[in-house]
Amino acid sequence: MLSAVAARKARLAASQAQNTTPVAAAPSASASPPPSQTKQKAPPQSTSQRPPSSKRKFTAAAGGTAAKKKRREQPARYFAQASADAFKAQDDVIVVDESDAESSFSSSESSEEDVAAPRRTRAWSPSAPLADSSDEDDGDGDEPIVLDYPLSAPLDQVSVEPASALSSFDPVLNQNVFHLAPASETAPKSTVLLLRSGETVALLGTYTLTVLRGTITLAGVQLLAGHTSHPVYAPRSSPIPIIQCRLSRSTPTGRAPLLPALPERIADASPHFDAVLMLQELHTGIEGLGRICRTFDACFAPARWHRNLPRFDLGLDTVYFLARQTPDVSPLVVPPSWDAAIGSVMPPPDVDEHTLLGQGATYLVRGPKNAGKSTFARLLLNRLLSRYQRVAYLECDLGQSEFTPGGMVSLNVVDRPVFGPPFSHPSVPHASHYIGATSPKNSPSHYLESLQALIQLYHAELQDAALDEQPNDSRITSIVPLVVNTMGWTKGLGADLERKVEEIIEPAHIFTFAAPSPEDGWNVPGPSHSHPGGATVHAVESVPPSSLASYYSAADHRNISMLSYFHAVFPSAAPSTSSPLATAWDTSLPLCAQPPYQLDCQTALDQLVLTGAGTEDVVPSEVHRALPGALVALVTCEPGTLDSDSDSDTVSPSTLPYSPGAPPPSPHASRCLGLALVRGVRPHPHARLQLLTPVPARLLGEARVLVMGEMQLPVWGMLDFRTLDGGGEVAGVEKGRVPYLRWGKGEGAGGERRRVRRNLMRRGQM
């Protein structure tokens, strides 16, 4: 839309063009203009097409005319002067000779030098008049616009930077790569790799890794030859772990015995290499999570635009060999400061276990967000498992939890390394407490009380819990070290909570991450110094955010972790010494099509608690409307702790045991077993709940308290992925009739209908 000034200029230019048309048609008689035309002014938009017209206006107002003429008098233009021109050397001036000046200015012919010379085209201005069909063609409209950008090198010398290599291993079939036939129809396919010292291998997908001979490092963790098979989950949504061969010092190279019985062709070729690995397919159903949460669709396979690239075939359906890095794949890089910091706290190989009893074995990781704390804490956990049979992991980050969904603090006991993102190893924690939000800002006291209860449980049950020594395991059994991962909120209330957490835990070693900028957190101390509380502080460098941060946000990772938890299949018989991890994922049916548990609220439920902002206003007669589609925590309490808070005799069969404003159970007398999804509520004639939960059935009888917080199920979990590409029905119901869902596209910023109010007056109009 043109402004008033631009419209006036357009009308003035049009009137001048009509009056100067006869003058432009007659060619000039001489090369130099006459003296009477020395002070003439040409229209600003057509100086190269018409001779300058008179500056005199057709009409002038009486009074002040002479002053305006005097004020607007200008010297002769540069093209009408015979002397040297100071503007001649500028790039936006086209130099013409006398023969061209004698000809018509509307001629479109030019010399070769003028065509070759680059011209700078003025950007569009709202004050410039718009060209219409009555304007003359300038003859340059069909020519391409030349951008005068400086080049650092000629075009023929500019080269494209090649993609960085992820794997230095050069696979050759039947030389360093061997395919093994499956032992049975149900057995997974296997492939053997022979590596030399220093070679690296990057693999995408899900697989099981077994070191048959030699020593390797996987994601910064050293793995020795043995019978242990390590499941590895390497999706594109997280940095890819790199396998690197190390020269083994304990086992000499050459005719070292191989653990399983391998074909003779592999045994004959293995002495010329330093490590022998066996890869097997891993079918757990975790790939189906991409169909449920379309953000992670096919994240365990190469992207669609990279699937046609030439790639070596390993003969495995779930594993892909990566030779070079692509924009959507990032390697897991371990900085040297991480290795140095972790190596300084590792016990020596020949240390006596009794000498470690008096030393602290609590390690706290702190720092701002997006600094690499969770990756470092996972690396520290895996490195400690190479020296200890069990390691405890205390999760204090409510938004980015490692072993549980968000919204809870948990204490897990791990007995084997974990190689994969958090959504690949959900667990039933040893102990946990539900906060109900991704931040403790609304309930800081409950957050600190829950952490204090967990650390007391660790000191009472886990710290010095000795295990029976295994005959072929030389790891330490009398001590269970503790790794604490803190949240990335390091300002204001978050900094105060961080100091309170350190006082509660009393760590022996603190790993501090440097903030990317001074505004993101505290200044990092020196390499190692003593903490006022007696802890040794180790400064480690922050890792820059990978390119994957632009593809997957923190909310996306929380969503996939929540959906992975509800589709996980946990072992029915839990191990007695560690927290059970998920062994498979059932993604054959969406949550809306899975059969739920039905709970009789009168006999199986003691209390219902609602936490979070606004929940205190929910009255008992309307609580059944707030529960459908909500996430609740299954909490078990010690006997007698709820007798004084609730009176079951006054609760009718048609109502839920709910009291508005009731606080959550005390963390010192309760424990959260897991989360459940309330699929439906039937208040009459007897109150019944339908619940979906992955918690093993043997634990459900202990949960007699439900706690509802601010956490919600991701919208992907409410949809039916079987019909997303079709009509969008949910379990056979039309999408317009599905409860708790609203379909339609949202308006962008400024896209809604404008509402004009004409009853407002400015101050000058009053």
TrEMBL record:
<dbReference type="InterPro" id="IPR045116">
    <property type="entry name" value="Clp1/Grc3"/>
</dbReference>
<dbReference type="GO" id="GO:0005524">
    <property type="term" value="F:ATP binding"/>
</dbReference>
<dbReference type="InterPro" id="IPR032319">
    <property type="entry name" value="CLP1_P"/>
</dbReference>
<keyword id="KW-0547">Nucleotide-binding</keyword>
<dbReference type="GO" id="GO:0005634">
    <property type="term" value="C:nucleus"/>
</dbReference>
<feature type="compositionally biased region" description="Low complexity">
    <location>
        <begin position="649"/>
        <end position="659"/>
    </location>
</feature>
<dbReference type="GO" id="GO:0000448">
    <property type="term" value="P:cleavage in ITS2 between 5.8S rRNA and LSU-rRNA of tricistronic rRNA transcript (SSU-rRNA, 5.8S rRNA, LSU-rRNA)"/>
</dbReference>
<feature type="region of interest" description="Disordered">
    <location>
        <begin position="100"/>
        <end position="145"/>
    </location>
</feature>
<feature type="region of interest" description="Disordered">
    <location>
        <begin position="641"/>
        <end position="667"/>
    </location>
</feature>
<keyword id="KW-0808">Transferase</keyword>
<protein>
    <recommendedName>
        <fullName>Polynucleotide 5'-hydroxyl-kinase GRC3</fullName>
    </recommendedName>
</protein>
<dbReference type="InterPro" id="IPR027417">
    <property type="entry name" value="P-loop_NTPase"/>
</dbReference>
<feature type="compositionally biased region" description="Acidic residues">
    <location>
        <begin position="133"/>
        <end position="145"/>
    </location>
</feature>
<dbReference type="GO" id="GO:0051731">
    <property type="term" value="F:polynucleotide 5'-hydroxyl-kinase activity"/>
</dbReference>
<dbReference type="Pfam" id="PF16575">
    <property type="entry name" value="CLP1_P"/>
</dbReference>
<feature type="domain" description="Clp1 P-loop">
    <location>
        <begin position="367"/>
        <end position="567"/>
    </location>
</feature>
<keyword id="KW-0418">Kinase</keyword>
<feature type="compositionally biased region" description="Low complexity">
    <location>
        <begin position="1"/>
        <end position="31"/>
    </location>
</feature>
<feature type="compositionally biased region" description="Low complexity">
    <location>
        <begin position="43"/>
        <end position="52"/>
    </location>
</feature>
<feature type="region of interest" description="Disordered">
    <location>
        <begin position="1"/>
        <end position="77"/>
    </location>
</feature>
<comment type="similarity">
    <text>Belongs to the Clp1 family. NOL9/GRC3 subfamily.</text>
</comment>
<keyword id="KW-0067">ATP-binding</keyword>
